[in-house]
Amino acid sequence: MELADLGFDSWFRKKREESQKADFSVARITRVDRNRYLVRNEENEIQAEPTGKLLFFTDSTQDLPCVGDWAYVQYYNDGTLAIIHELLPRKTFLRRKSAGNTVDYQMIASNIDIAFIIQSCDFNFNLRRMERYLVMANEGHVEPIILLSKSDLVSSEELEKRISEIRQAHIGARVIAFSNKTAIGLDTVQQVLEKGKTYCLLGLSGVGKTTLLNHLLADEVFETNPVREKDGRGRHTTARRQLIVLDNGALLIDTPGMRELGMIAVGTSIDDSFSDIHELSQNCRFNDCAHTVEVSCAILTAVQAGDLSEERYQSYVKLMKESKFHQMSYVERRKKDKQFGKMIKTAMKQIKKK
Ligand SMILES: Nc1nc2c(ncn2[C@@H]2O[C@H](COP(=O)(O)OP(=O)(O)OP(=O)(O)O)[C@@H](O)[C@H]2O)c(=O)[nH]1
Ligand SMILES: [Mg+2]
Ligand SMILES: [Zn+2]
Fold first, then answer.
1. 180 lines ligand 1 (CB under 6 A)
2. What is the residue range of 28's domain?
3. pTM above 0.70, yes or no
């Protein structure tokens, strides 16, 4: 296997040449399990450890190795152990805000060409959550494709309805419906997969990510689990992120289902995901309009006129608020949090009154 088959394209070759790290080999990180790593090179997949410097002197957890990263390594023990010295720059990434009260981010995966955003057609289907994943993909420069799984659980009318809801929300990404059970749509998913390109499965626990992977491998290699009857939640079967080479040479990363998505975005990628609202905002009277209480705000006017759904407006404002929030310092944030909450409440009341 060539490094190119693992996704090492001209972009990374150039970065490697510029870095002048001739003493180092290059390998791709295929699995992260706390501080234990696997990397893959031309020959095989081996255990890897980061240097203490890399582990303890990084400012932010997002600078630690994650699945999909390309790393400068040196080999020991006859090539059975790799020491990770440094990471190559990331071409694209998927990340979310770390849990708790920090402004730090947690990397999900890097150097992804296409993110499969998976929701199942049943109760799991949720446009607001879908928007959040889209914003995350946008921010990391990853092309999104929406996969609607478990299409066997709904009628074709219901499926059509879901898809038109996605379109009504101005989500322009490609949508593929499929079922792991009946195998409908699996060939369409298969056709997306190209040799040497990297794909990442994203979605809540239980939507069928690993089942899909097993289908694509034509083998039950990875463990899956039924969803709990009681509340329809998944069981978090997949515990770690892992990059797998499929038979056709495509590279696929399975991830554990996320409990919640946290917040992820910066302003511009939100505007990409809400292009209709962004367009409206060009007509607001004030350049720095926050679209909450301002006079002659084109967005508020559209909501009042019923041209823009209130739900979508709220989701936009909420994302903008969180995004601004994460760019502020901790103290600033604590102060602003209360003020902004009040402001939104007042704005929503006003809209309802009119
Ligand atoms: N009816 C139906 N059930 C499915 C389909 N795909 C997966 N399932 C079932 O859904 C359950 C969860 O599937 P998994 O593949 O483990 O889900 P996952 O997304 O990998 O979940 P985590 O690893 O916890 O994130 C299993 O019992 C699967 O058999 C489908 O297309 N239709
Ligand atoms: Mg899984
Ligand atoms: Zn405005």
1. yes
2. 3-87
3. yes
